[in-house]
Amino acid sequence: MVRDPERKKVLRQCAFNQPKVEEASTVLIMIADPGGVEENLERVLDSWQKLGYIKSDIRKTYTEMAKNLYESEDSLKRKIFAVKNTALFAMNLMIAAKGLGLETHPMDGFDEECIKKEFHIPDDKIIPMLVAVGYLRSGITLLPRAFRRELSEFVRFEKF
Ligand SMILES: Cc1cc2nc3c(=O)[nH]c(=O)nc-3n(C[C@H](O)[C@H](O)[C@H](O)COP(=O)(O)O)c2cc1C
């Protein structure tokens, strides 16, 4: 979460000098962690066991299943899984922010290596997007909503 004006200046430079990075109250750097599977597995299984979802004898099977499903430490599958989770989190955060009267703006226009270097983010992490968050400045009227495809253009029934 980047709030400090000086740090926002640095982030702006990593985001192709986009003014909104400095203008927004806060810019969130969304970070996906491909190592999250192992990091949290034991804690999740502890909670499942405590709450009675599973018995202790099945823990080993679940651990092996997770390892097989997400493959090696730097597998593409694991990276995609981390990005899926982070994108879901980002969208939920944007909806919640709107509910609290804030505006948000997802951003893909940035140099990932620059952000990692400037903000000391370990190299194995992935930055799927930035999200600028703030209140709409008073006296500003937003332009009308831009083009949206009709549902029928992209919803398929039963097969692609
Ligand atoms: C994943 C994603 C990344 C985006 N990256 C940028 C960006 O770096 N800079 C920008 O000005 N707009 C970016 N946009 C577009 C805006 O966030 C926003 O969608 C756009 O201003 C239009 O608003 P609307 O989607 O409500 O029509 C991005 C949108 C998405 C979905």
List keywords for this structure.
binds flavin mononucleotide, alpha+beta, three-stranded antiparallel sheet, globular, 160 residues, 7 helices
Description:
The protein is an alpha+beta fold. It has helices at about 5-15, 20-25, 35-50, 60-70, 75-100, 110-120, 150-155; strands at about 25-30, 105, 125-135. It has a 3-stranded antiparallel beta sheet with strand order 1-3-2. The protein starts with a helix and ends in a 6-residue tail after the last helix. The model has no long low-confidence stretch (mean pLDDT about 95). The structure holds flavin mononucleotide.
How far apart are the first and last residues' alpha carbons, in Å?
Answer: 39 Å
- Bound molecule kinds, no repeats: flavin mononucleotide
The portion of residues assigned to helices is: 40-55%
Order of adjacent strands in the largest pleated sheet: 1-3-2
Secondary structure tally, helices: 7
Share of residues in strands: 5-15%
Q: What is the ordering of alpha helices and beta strands? A: HHEHHHEHEH
The number of distinct β-strands equals: 3
Instruction: Note the overall shape.
Output: globular
Rg of Cα set: 20 Å
By oligomeric state, this entry counts as: single chain
Q: What characterizes the major β-sheet?
A: 3 strands, antiparallel
Question: What does the secondary structure layout of this molecule look like, with pairings?
Answer:
Layout: H1 5-14, H2 19-23, E1 26-32, H3 36-50, H4 59-70, H5 76-99, E2 103-107, H6 112-118, E3 126-134, H7 151-154
Antiparallel strand pairs: 1-3, 2-3
The structure holds flavin mononucleotide.
Flavin mononucleotide is lined by residues 18, 105-109, 129, 146.
